[in-house]
TrEMBL record:
A GO CC annotation given for this chain: plasma membrane
Database matches in Pfam families: ABC_tran, BCA_ABC_TP_C
UniProt organism field: Hoeflea phototrophica (strain DSM 17068 / NCIMB 14078 / DFL-43)
Keyword Transport belongs to the record: yes
Coiled coil: none
Classification via InterPro entries: AAA+_ATPase (IPR003593), ABC_AA/LPS_Transport (IPR051120), ABC_transporter-like_ATP-bd (IPR003439), ABC_transporter-like_CS (IPR017871), BCA_ABC_TP_C (IPR032823), P-loop_NTPase (IPR027417)
Source domain of life: Bacteria
Family to which this protein belongs: Belongs to the ABC transporter superfamily.
Record key words, sorted: ATP-binding, Nucleotide-binding, Transport
Single GO MF annotation: ATP hydrolysis activity
Name of the protein: ABC-type branched-chain amino acid transport system, ATPase component
Domain ABC transporter: 2-250
CDD domains the UniProt entry points to: ABC_Mj1267_LivG_branched
Length: 262
């Protein structure tokens, strides 16, 4: 689905992404890991149109989407969430969901005045879709709560729900587990798996929690110093000497024998 070819993104003399190439298969939940500063979020931002690459390209189903703006990519089903949730804090959960579908007639003052029936039908359709999402995510108990009053984990669920309000081809999740308690993280993981298995969603997620990654992701891609270091199953990645070196600064073979046994 997504193919990244020889991607570079420089900020002055800093190479945040350095000749990175990878493929995200249709129907997969791909994990993206790496130490802080590895270039993971910058890579997400380039793919999702928030940054233009210095060089290289991004393909979606064989079509070059390099440099398209976020709203153009949104229209093509490429969605991205953020480590810090971007909710409308003074709207309810239900209203946040209903805000997502683009090109609503009620957004135009002229149509709101001249075609109230059309506006009403669209709102009813969006409300029904929002109710479906609320039921799917099992968040009916906070449906009428202001989004700004939600916990961090509930906001992450809301962000996931917002991706369900449109026809998403691929969703990029940036540290969906950050600051989330273990119980709610399990709920988020269940929702991601159900969306993948029951509705065919393709995901790519940045995450530091390897237990969470191991549960959800295959394959797992490890980045370091702006480039792709390794790819494989979660178990393969955990045992990869280069990955251990990138995270810990030294590989197992360089550790004292006693430490390696421990």
């Amino acid at each position: 689905m997504i193919v990244v070819e020889n991607l570079h993104k420089n900020f002055g003399g800093i190479r945040a992404v350095d000749n990175a190439s990878l493929t995200i298969r249709t129907g997969s939940i791909t994990g993206l890991i790496g130490p802080n500063g590895a270039g993971k979020t910058t890579l997400f931002n380039v793919i999702a149109g928030h940054y233009r690459p210095t060089s290289g390209r991004v393909l979606l189903d064989g079509k070059d989407i390099t440099g398209l703006s976020p709203h153009e990519l949104f229209a093509q089903g490429v969605l991205r969430t953020f480590q810090i949730a971007h909710e409308f804090s003074t709207l309810t959960v239900r209203e946040n969901l209903m805000m997502v579908p683009p090109h609503q007639s009620g957004e135009t003052l002229f149509k709101a005045w001249t075609q109230p029936g059309l506006v009403r039908r669209e709102e009813e359709k969006n409300r029904a879709k929002a109710e479906e999402v609320i039921e799917f995510l099992e968040i009916s108990h906070v449906a009428d709560e202001l989004a700004g009053n939600l916990s961090g984990g509930q906001k992450k669920l809301l962000e996931l729900g917002r991706t369900m309000m449109v026809d998403a081809k691929i969703v990029f999740l940036d540290e969906v587990g950050a600051g989330v308690n273990r119980t709610l993280l399990g709920t988020i993981g269940d929702a991601i798996l159900r969306l993948n298995r029951e509705r065919g969603y393709t995901f790519c997620m940045i995450e530091h929690d390897m237990d969470f990654i191991s549960r959800l992701c295959d394959p797992v891609i490890c980045m370091a110093e702006g480039t792709v270091l390794a790819e494989g199953t979660a178990e393969d990645i955990k045992k990869n000497e280069e990955v251990i070196e990138a995270y810990l600064g030294t590989g197992l073979k360089n550790k004292p024998a006693k430490a390696a046994v421990q």
